[in-house]
Design a protein that fits this description.
The chain has 174 residues and is α/β, with parallel strands linked by helices. Helices cover 34% and strands 19% of the residues. Belongs to the MoaB/Mog family.
């Protein structure tokens, strides 16, 4: 793996965005709109973007297709992480993981607790790696997406963030 320093160019990651929701449309998808803007403002590229129903098999299809693509480094999902029976993101994504990033969900819930109190407990935010593609699943509210991006993902996807970051793993991938 290449070691990055402040003098090296920032790694521009190719990120796919998946909104998991039964009624969202592109014009009403404020969470993905926020994430796309934040991702691009950080120097990364939107490799693909889609909205799919909250159905574990539909979710797995999108994720599996993107996991197999060489031009997708990271997948960020929003929606379907809550406690209602219909929410199926966790059940859909965890069987695909080769490696769990348990700390992602733990850290998200800690920040969420600071923001909204004990209601943050109901978030099943999760992260993992499948076929060398990192996957981060956020709740569907714009506030939760902002929290996940600003407090965790923005730094971890920045190849200059020290002492370590996820982006460095992709320095030699392309």
């Amino acid at each position: 793996m290449k070691s990055l320093t402040d003098n090296d160019s920032k790694v521009a990651l190719r990120i796919a965005l998946l909104t998991i929701h039964d009624t969202r449309k592109p014009e009403t998808d404020t969470s993905a709109h926020y994430l796309a803007g934040a991702i691009e403002a950080s120097g990364h590229v939107i490799a693909d973007r889609a909205i799919c129903p909250d159905n574990r098999y539909a979710i797995r299809k999108y994720l599996s297709d993107w996991i197999l693509r060489d031009d997708v480094h990271i997948i960020v999902t929003n929606g379907g992480t809550g406690m209602r029976d219909k929410n199926s993101t966790l059940a859909a994504v965890t069987p695909l993981f080769d490696t769990d990033i348990a700390g992602f969900g733990e850290l998200f819930r800690a920040y969420s607790f600071a923001d909204i109190g004990s209601s943050g407990l109901q978030s099943n935010a999760v992260g993992g790696k499948a076929n060398n593609t990192l996957i981060f699943c956020l709740p569907g509210s714009t506030g939760a997406c902002r929290l996940g991006w600003e407090k965790i993902l923005r730094e971890q996807l920045d190849s200059h963030h020290q002492p370590c970051n996820f982006a460095s793993a992709y320095a030699k991938r392309d």
